[in-house]
Amino acid sequence: MRKSGKFITIEGVEGSGKTTQCALLADYLREQGIDVVVTREPGGTRAGEQIRQILLSPSNNALSPIAELMLFLAARAQQVAEIVLPSLESGKCVICDRFSDATIAYQGYGRGLDLDSISQVNEIATQGLKPDLTILLDLDIETGISRAVTHKREFRESKDGDRIEKQDKEFHRRVREGYIELARREPERIVVVPVTGSIKDIHRIVVSLVAPFLVKTP
Ligand code: TMP
């Protein structure tokens, strides 16, 4: 079946406020009478959330870059099959906290894995699905990492963040540059929003970007 709902992804470096903006956007769209599904990567499904634990647990510090890549893709394949495609096919708007661009930014630019190979496996995991709109929240990595480590604390046993947040600054710098490069290559899909001002200010910008893409469900 062809998709009919809109697929919006929010991306960004650590601590950029994606999760907050996904939730605010979902609330706003529901107020407008739009049927919305919010999900995240890695995660969203039962299997995906289990894979998230493996990927982000600081105790798995020996995970190889290729094993890491495959786990992100396994979570994505399940998410697309179980949540994203069925929701879009039934006309719902899907908001996803990270998607394929994160793999190119983190495993490609960050870890240095081959970008073309990542695109090919992404294509398999997503069944060729691309977001209609991607909002890239951009901020400097020092501010971002300190915000992420202070506020998220998903793995409370580690005071310097989860397995990926703990990577060195150079890694996070490459990820940020990778995201910016992706936005440069696909300006019609990926819009960069600098994280300055309040959460409400950013939310207003996000709403203004999403508005043209929406069609109310009956
Ligand atoms: P988050 O839920 O806070 O965004 O955490 C997810 C982490 O996983 C974050 O550090 C980015 C990383 N990640 C990748 O490295 N590759 C991917 O494909 C995805 C979706 C996330």
Features:
218 residues; alpha/beta; five-stranded parallel sheet; binds thymidine-5'-phosphate; single chain
Strands side by side in the biggest sheet:
2-3-1-4-5
Query: Looking at this structure, what is the CATH superfamily?
Result: P-loop containing nucleotide triphosphate hydrolases
- Are there runs of 5+ residues with pLDDT below 50, and where? none
Secondary-structure-derived class: alpha/beta
Straight-line distance between termini: 19 Å
The CATH topology name reads Rossmann fold
Largest sheet: 5 strands, parallel
What does the average pLDDT come to? Answer: 94
Rounded Rg:
16 Å
Name the assembly state. single chain
Q: Specify the overall morphology.
A: globular
What's the CATH class label? Answer: Alpha Beta
Give the beta-strand count: 5
Write out the distinct hetero groups bound to the structure.
thymidine-5'-phosphate
Strand content: 5-15%
Number of domains: 1
**Helical residues, percent:** 40-55%
